[in-house]
Specification:
By secondary structure, this protein is mainly beta. The chain has one domain. The chain has helices spanning 2-7, 59-64, 136-144, 194-199, and strands at 20-30, 33-45, 48-57, 67-78, 81-93, 96-105, 108-115, 155-160, 165-176, 179-190, 202-211, 218-227, 230-236. Strands 7-6-5-4-3-2-1-13-12-11-10-9-8 form a 13-stranded antiparallel β-sheet. A hairpin with a 2-residue loop joins strand 1 and strand 2.
Amino acid sequence: MLRILTAALIAFALPAAADQSDRIVFGFSLKGIPAGQLSINGKIQGGSYGANGVMETTGLLGALRKLRYDAQVSGGFSGGRFTPMRFDETAQRGSDRYQYVTVYKGGVPVSVSRNPPRKPRATDVDPAKQGGTVDPLTALYAVLRDVDRSEACTFSAYMYDGSKRTQVTLSHPKPSGNGVVCAGEYRRIAGFSAREMQEKAVFPFTLTYAPGPDGKRLQVVSIETDTIIGRGRLTRQ
């Protein structure tokens, strides 16, 4: 679930000199039923950025299947582009607990580890060929932070989560009241099994911006997306 949510939310643009801090909280529902919460604290300052976030199931879904992801990332910020340097994630799936670490050099993943380790899969993509991609948390923070109106709905980017490569695009901005609505698409590229690709390779989504508290910049207020098990919605809290 986190991969779908996170994959539906990538962006990169921000004026180079604009420092900012963000506290972001979204609720997630599936088929209209509350299912989880996403929270992110992020900061851009000078030529660097950092973020930490938590995604966890709640409500009925949480009672049926307890999932929680805690992550943090740090990296460089230049020319409106995020370049991760280190990404750490702890995943709690029921009683199982996993830790992931990805270290980058020059925008390329040079070390990808998992504790406890798992055997490599034939479908895993080569980290050395993932230069220019971003990790899931960087992607989330990049799109959910407040942006100038001119930045809305303008990006195409790739994400690497340690074994898979995906592509996300936003386009076709349309005015919606005082805000903007974007058409989006998440596409599985590599690292997926044949069954997963046949199951669903493209996930369309809709992202809606509204004026933020300062009245000058836009903030994401909702995201509606297809998932494997039905329509999902992220709503700002």
